[in-house]
Records
---
Amino acid sequence: MSGVTMDKPLVADSAPEPAHSLRQARLPRWTPAAVAAGAVAVGTGIGIGAGLGSRIQWGLIAGALYVIATYVLAASVEGRRQAKDRLATSLVWACFVLAVVPLVSLVRETVSRGVKVLDGNFLSHSMAGVLTIQPGGGVYHAIIGTLEQVGIATAIAAPIGLLTAVYLVEYGRGRLAKAVTFFVDVMTGIPSIVAGLFVLSFWIIMLDFGYSGFAGSMALAILMMPVVVRSTEEMLKLVPNELREASLALGVPKWRTILKVVLPTAIGGIATGVMLAVARIAGETAPIVLLVFGSQVINNNPFDGAQSSLPYYIYEQWAAGNAASYDRAWAGALVLIAFVMILNLVARGVARWKAPK
């Protein structure tokens, strides 16, 4: 039996084809920054060449150029699909800048004008015996009024809002819960002047009580309650149902489960919501103008007599219409912004401190 011989050696039928690259061409990481810088330079040049005096117009031109240039470069290098993604990203950045620019401009203008008279004397004196056309005086009486009015409003609105949210999340069923939710939604959009008019007609006209800081606090509490209810309700809904079920399975009553399990878990978000609601009402002017009546002297009793506040002080000084009062109004606005900023920082700190580990 003879062996099998092969006339030709075993060779591959064809040469292996080169592997296609799975990586698509991409623009460098520094491209967006370079495009933005170029858009700003070109937009500025167009604005100057066209005789446009407003820098806002220059910025709008630069923003449009940035979006267009980003899309064109991405489409030519990365393809149309990636270009659409970069177009959406550039539009988001452009909208972000448009939202931040007014805020930065507002803070810059307030700081530059407010620091002219903002010092220790301004923070520790009232307007008692000071003419509006003369320099001097301070904002101490308005700070006292704001702290007392906002504190009383928080003491009224926070417990009511918290208990309402607990009812809606843990117990609310049927028509009553739907009605409460509906009225909370309605109160969320109520104008502040309406709340002031309600308290004015009921507390001052019908019940014949005088103007006071407490009257302003009641109007502020009306504005604050729906914000507390909504924020607390959303925080309670984020608590996992497994925690409630585990507690109830151990025989713990529902009220104790809410008190010891649900609320501690959501306390960080609840505190943040309350602080944000406080920051919202701290700058309300319309109900304060109607109800506290204003005062040039220090009134430490919010339940008796007219009282001032920071929003009313700013309105009062600006209405005086002279250079000295304008400076005091800007300084009062700076103090109010600092007060709101401190509240927001406290809210973030409490949320981080009390967040579940």
Note: The two ends are 83 Å apart (CA to CA).
---
Amino acid sequence: MIQARNHLDQPYPPAPFAAGVPVLILGAVAAIAFVTGDGTSWLPLLAVGPALAAAACRPWAVLRIGFLAVALGVGLGAWQAAPVHGQAVVLSTLIAVTLASCLASVLRRRRERVLAAVRSVAEAAQNALLRPVPARVGQFQVAVRYSAAAAEARVGGDLYALVSTPYGIRLIVGDVRGKGLPAVSTAALVLGVFREAAYDEPDLLDVVGRIERSLARNLAPDDFVTAIVAGYPADGRMEIVNCGHAPPLLIGPAGAVVPVEPVRPAPPLGLASLGGEAPSLEVVPFADGDQMLLYTDGVIEARDHGRSYFPLAERVPRHVSDEPSRTLAGLHDELLAHVGGRLHDDAALLLLRKPAPGRVGQAVDAAADTTGV
């Protein structure tokens, strides 16, 4: 799920709030100088006002705060009958600091505009890469939560996709080794091949094989992708191919959580040439009321201040509901609370639920009411 734009998309905060702290500092310096009766000793501290304003204010606001600092310096110097030479040195310093702060504010404004443009492009790329998943796909309810560790760029190496094909619903959740633009490029490659192969290949293992061959041609020798590829080809049956990824969690109607461990662990995608077991197809029952949670390592490897991992399987029963979006919202909030508010790795959660046939429409309407769609 793409994060909403925040205040960094606007180059500057409101001028009154940004200028308030420097003005308060100037007032405090003037008050201390007046109370102590030693204005000349406090004059150099007036330079703090325009210097601090450069970090938050527009250039014109910096100039106004600098002018106020100079005016206070002149007034305090005249009140104390300070020597002309000493007062001239202090006032020259205030003017120089003000001009330098104004230049710093101009440069900061340019950098913030460039950053805003980069983030806008990154967000568009992320939207194109990780297409929004609707609340209902076929007979399933679906919800996704995604958080990128690179919050400034909003791009990460985790990937997910869910498509409806002639062979039933098929989905992938994966984690690319590394972060940043190289990881995004690899994720785009995997998702592109998956979306094509999911429509073309009747056998889920052949879908995985096409992804593996594409990665073998395009990845560096030490790059790889862990992934779960799953499909629902017939009623009551879910097929899963695990390529070095964390096992998905099968959640029963009563809230019981069972990890779907692979019988034959296979290496991640891109490492088949190094040997090891070939990917195997696991078939698990998936009936009405069942849910399947797929996730990336950023979820289960998230640590709190005591270096303890997030116990996902233990926390899932607390939040299980008939609405996948509500379930993931609760899990995501608890995950952020566990790490103290900021994730240090990309994290993705995808929850698939098969409601009873007569309750599909009701569940989707409820999800729409919850998400505001």
Note: The longest strand covers residues 225-234.
---
Amino acid sequence: MTRLQDTAHAKINLYLHVTGRRPDGYHLLDSLAVFAGAADTISVGEKCDRFSLSIEGRFGKGLEADDSNLVLKAARALQAKSGSHDAYRLTLKKDLPVASGIGGGSADAACTLRILSRVWNATESDLCTLAEPLGADVPVCVRQQATRMEGIGEILTPAPEMPNGGILLINPGVGVSTPDIFRSFAAMGGIVQRTKPVLPSQWSSMRDLVDLLLQTTNDLQAPAIAHAPVISDVLTAIQSQSDCLLSRMSGSGATCFGLFPTPQKAREAEEALTQTATRLGWWTWSGPFHQNSPVGTP
């Protein structure tokens, strides 16, 4: 078999509203999720008796390639669905920060489903069915396209394709616990009743997108800053850059993003912050939004 490879792109929550809580404790959300060019890479190697995983890359150190790893869980779930006994050696090149609010592990699991769907001719519907038990963010990461997420992440509605703007990502290298952030969210007042944002059929420009986002927020940003005040420093650094249209935190943190009129403006902002980022050990990336290619294609 020809060596297969695919990319697991960073998921960014442009807004994130906590809208309720189920009796089982899971929080209900409303979020606009998009994808950036920054990505991990999954490769499928030779056949073997049982799926195995090698992890490399800048953020691979400390990750365990054991049965709890979402990549292996996804591979075995699709193998069982296909009825095949074939297994392969997998490699994860981990270039996205871990536990950072950009869906890295979920994106890796979804990427594994996509790439192995080319081996076993699985449909997108098959992948979405398998994705949901793997984690709340895995279904949206299967398609890697602008999507409105609701419920606990299982209600997905296509959103307008992103305009040709730029995005800057910065992670300050600190970890925050999602359960801790939600507990702090409850302690700080909890769920706010608000009007549900109405998304247009398309964005005419980045300014059009930002005008809507200014009517929204990330409900988890303040609780995350209480746990990791450096997030506020990152947001200030991004917002201070020329041509920045909006700065905000993604997910439960600690990665923050800035939106810019063009990818080049985002790159110029990253360059301007290079000295600060290097001194403080911040991870940065800048460029265009990722626009989806159909499931089942390289």
Note: The radius of gyration is 19 Å.
---
Amino acid sequence: MEKILLIEDNAAICENVAEILELANYQVLTAANGKEGVSMALEHLPDLIVCDIMMPVLDGYGVLHMLHKNKALQTTPFIFLTAKTERTDVRKGMEMGADDYITKPFEGTELLSAIESRLKRCAEIKHNSATGIQGLNILLSASNGADHLSLLKEDRNTNHYKKKQSIYAAGNRPDYLYYLLHGKVKTYKRNDDGKELIIGLYNEGDFLGYNALLEGGNYQENAEAMEDTLLAVIPHQDFQRLISSNPEVLGKFIRLLSREMAEKEQQLIGLAYNSLRKKVAEALVMLDKKYNKTGSKNFSIDISRENLAAVAGVAKESLIRTLGDFRDERLIALKEGQIAALSIKKLTEMIN
């Protein structure tokens, strides 16, 4: 049974909508204002959220903004339920990442149809976590872009990159959307002294290069293969045509961009205020989250000290000393160039 969170300050409307949803065999949670709604969403992780805009304490826009900061709720379908019908209001909600916008008064069948449609789309799009080229195909087919999907299948090529080979460089115009089939990729920037800071890590099943395509500008960072890598490449003309005709796919990439921006903000805060030990611990935890998808306790990763230092934003010499301390404290194991985190729990506690 799907779980729906209804956030509505009008008691009569809330009761009526909740009754409609329960009759349709949904489990319904209700909140009387935005602040209460955010708390309930974080606690219960609903499958879909229906939210009014004009509410006390925290309005619907604020609720959507807060929820999109939480990784577990970023892809949760979000429907605005409101009497505000101005085009600017609708546009604002959609630009913030809302999935639908239902105006009052409305028919119960209209709401149920929107909810059923969004839950179905969400279930389909979640399949894009599948690795390999099928992950991309599932995402595109979920967008109902059958004609574009056929075109992309015909035109798609794959490129092989050796370890340390450049994929694209800052300042260049974007030619492709990249989909990582095999290997690991980093994006990074260099300062005037040549010091490198890694700002993004990518694993199998990830897209990269979409920032510049969405902005219509040049690449702002460099991308390089961290090991032998296979990428599917989609010409930017096909990507632009796809997102222009398929709002669902455009929304997916906007959410990816929002999540990436939130991660970068957190990284900058850590670089500015964290201690050396905390920076290194945070880098190790991030690597575990990114590449240890199965949660294996025996996970290890082969990453150069230069790359790890660039992820943590510290000097290589300082990193080596800190890794030695962590090894002595039995937080990690170092063996033949690989790093194995023996206690992710303790490393996580260190950064919280």
Note: The radius of gyration is 22 Å.
